Amino acid sequence: QVQLVESGGGLVQAGDSLRLSCAASGRTFSTYTMAWFRQAPGKEREFVAVISWSTSSTYYTDSVKGRFTISRDNAKNTVYLQMDSLKPEDTAVYYCAAITLKAYGLTAYGDHYDSWGQGTQVTVSS
Question: Would you say 64 and 38 are in contact if contact means Cβ atoms under 8 Å apart?
Answer without folding.
Answer: no
